[in-house]
Design goal:
By secondary structure, the chain is α/β, with parallel strands linked by helices. About 40% of the residues lie in helices and about 20% in strands.
Length: about 350
């Protein structure tokens, strides 16, 4: 923890860690970017039995990106725990590579539901010795249609295991899972306090569709921000904008649903290392990507869902740093922007 630069726990960490250490089931509602991974990761690592080769801890995540991010975070936390083995399993990665990881007898598994269930059905993984299971971003995972998969996975674990749910919103499917599978759960609601709340100044730029690229170039040419994420609604626009910015001489790459997982991992790794300053993405990247030093987020297109706006701009202003977001809004999109503003009243952030 000291090596990672942490000096005091965030609110969600202070409230979750003692309860998890006591073996309590938890149903937690917490905003994005408040340190949830360490909140459940620290107790899991404290209780792992290094001599036991069974799978003891399982974390389910809705996306490949989030699974990889959690794996990276837990690996950092486990730096001085010799003999602690962690495996990350997700769709799109070759099965033989994952089998090699499983042959090392990991005590901790981080996985997307579909791929974990696949390994279970093949007989590669048994969950009969699991004592802690965490569903991270449970609302998003169940909303994506993983209800049956998640149910099968939970039912493969012992009834007395600890089950911890983290969500950004209270979702009906989450309540159903909690009611069916948790034992006397403690509910935690963590409001975004002044300390935890992302400090994001939001700007709306009124424009016309043909002028959006000119407005974007104006923002980029100001050369104020060194790490930027730009969001588009379609794969086509993501590719088109990436090509245009490359022609203009910018260091830019993109990720979307048609980009192979291996390429997405490479692009994200290079972005984290600062090898290029601008990442363009569809909402496939809005959740599950944690880069602490993104300075600005630009909505080239407004998202179709209000929550996606919050997830997008939440890529900046992390780790107690200040961030900024810009939304390029045409007259036709102004109604959509008004809906987003009404939604944001319940989750207020400074708007200019």
């Amino acid at each position: 923890i000291k090596d990672m630069g942490f000096t005091s726990p965030s609110t969600v960490q202070a409230r979750t860690i003692p309860l998890m250490m006591d073996g309590v089931d938890i149903n937690a509602i917490a905003p994005t970017g408040t340190g949830k991974t360490c909140a459940f990761g620290i107790p899991m690592l404290e209780y792992v039995q290094l001599q036991d080769e069974c799978v003891q801890e399982v974390v389910l995540a809705p996306t490949r990106e989030l699974a990889l991010q959690i794996g990276d975070e837990l690996t950092k936390l486990a730096k001085y725990i010799k003999g602690c083995r962690i495996a990350v399993l997700y769709g799109g990665q070759p099965i033989p590579k994952q089998l090699n990881a499983l042959k090392r007898k990991p005590q901790i598994i981080i996985a997307t539901p579909g791929r974990l269930l696949d390994h279970m059905q093949r007989g590669n993984i048994h969950l009969d010795a699991v004592h802690t299971m965490v569903l991270d971003e449970a609302d998003e995972m169940l909303n994506m249609g993983f209800v049956k998969d998640v149910t099968k996975i939970i039912e493969a674990t012992p009834k007395e295991r600890q089950l911890v749910l983290f969500s950004a919103t209270m979702h009906q499917e989450v309540l159903t899972i909690a009611w069916k599978y948790q034992n006397d759960p403690v509910e935690i609601t963590v409001e975004a306090t002044k300390e935890d709340r992302p400090q994001i100044a939001q700007y709306v730029i009124a424009t016309e569709q043909p002028k959006k690229i000119d407005n974007l170039l104006y923002l980029l040419d100001a050369d104020v921000y060194q790490r930027i994420m730009i969001f588009c609604n379609t794969k086509f626009m993501t590719d088109k904008l990436t090509s245009r910015l490359k022609k203009e001489g910018y260091g830019v790459e993109c990720i979307h649903g048609d980009v192979k997982q291996s390429q997405r991992n490479l692009v994200m790794g290079d972005f984290r290392k600062g090898k290029f300053p601008i990442l363009i993405a569809t909402d496939v990247a809005a959740r599950g990507i944690d880069v602490d030093d993104v300075e600005a987020v630009i909505n080239f297109d407004l998202p179709g869902e209000n929550e996606y706006y919050l997830h997008r701009i939440g890529r900046t202003g992390r780790a107690h740093k200040h961030g900024v977001s810009f939304s390029l809004v045409t007259f036709r999109e102004s109604v959509r922007m008004d809906e987003i503003l009404k939604y944001m009243i319940a989750k207020p952030l400074p708007l200019h």
